[in-house]
Amino acid sequence: MPPAKKRLRTYDATKTRAAVLAQFAHVREAVRALTPEQLALPTRLGDWTVRELAAHLTMALSRVTTGLEQPGPAGSKPALALLEWPFSTAGRAESIADDTRALAAAHPDLDALYAEVTAAFEEQVPVVPGDRLVLTRAGTMRLGDFLVTRTVELVAHTDDLNAAAGLDIPYDRQALAACTRLLADALADKAPGGSVEVRIPPFAVVQCIGGPRHTRGTPPNVVETGPLVWMRLATGRTPWARALDAAEVGASGERADLSTLLPLMS
Fold it and tell me: What's the total number of domains in the chain?
């Protein structure tokens, strides 16, 4: 008997759009209050300063509007599915860094940049259906799917900004949920199976890794952690061994070792 076809998670494009705007608004409020000394601080992203990171965060939204300003790509099917996106980011770090430095240099007034980006996003995104194809760096995607990827960008870089400048920028619940679920589903897609259960309460539970499938009772192999730690693991900000040593992740069972599968993004 063939295995059951995996049911893909769906996202409400209207709710995702609201989450993207809400998280961006949290960041904008914090950036507006940064001092020159804070803007000059280093970050954990190579040689980026806080100012460059703050400028880069605007690209989470501007990439959407830039894509929508172009004619719709030919064809009716996207070149890149949502679960493929996390694995498509490798190899673009240098070009992204160049674009970020150029953006920061061209916009000395960060609050004006944030206002411009917000206005363009609010104007263009509501009138476009979620299944409209958008040209992204990695290929064409459905707009609704691309919006989900924006939650990963915003949550990850909000965390970077908090760490670099000693801030406490809040996380929109819907943005954090979408980010967590996409990265959890990407893990299950990368290592299909049912021998390990990965729990990221309160947002996601997935099964992965081939082997005996668990169906009832307490699973023999369980990994459990929180949403932000999961994002850091999946994006390479925290190594698996360090998270274990710091008791940020619980892993029980012989197969509950994700070290060879993480990070998902680089």
Answer: 2
Tokens 């605007």 belong to 58
R_g of the chain computed on alpha carbons: 19
pTM over the 0.85 mark: yes
Residue 13 CB partners (closer than 8 Å, separation 6+): 130, 143, 144, 147
Domain ranges, residue 93: 13-174
Query: What string of DSSP letters covers 154-195?
Result: HHHHHHHHHHHHT------HHHHHHHHHHHHHHHHHHS--SS
202-261 pLDDT per residue, tens: 999 999 998 766 566 667 899 999 999 999 999 999 999 999 999 999 999 999 999 999
Assess whether 35 and 140 both reside in one domain: yes
Cα distance between residue 246 and residue 219, in whole Å: 23
> Does one domain contain both 104 and 222?
no
21 shares a domain with 151: yes
Residue 4 placed within a domain: no
- For 35-61, the pLDDT digits (tens) are 999 999 999 999 999 999 999 999 999
Nearest one of 179, 49, 160 to 105, comparing CA atoms: 49
Q: Sheet holding 249-252: strands in order across?
A: 204-208, 196-200, 222-225, 249-252
Q: Is there a single domain that holds both residue 84 and residue 150?
A: yes
53, two tokens: 């990171």
Give the DSSP H/E element, type plus range, for residue 133. Answer: strand 133-136
Rounded to whole angstroms, the Cα distance separating 73 from 233 reads 34
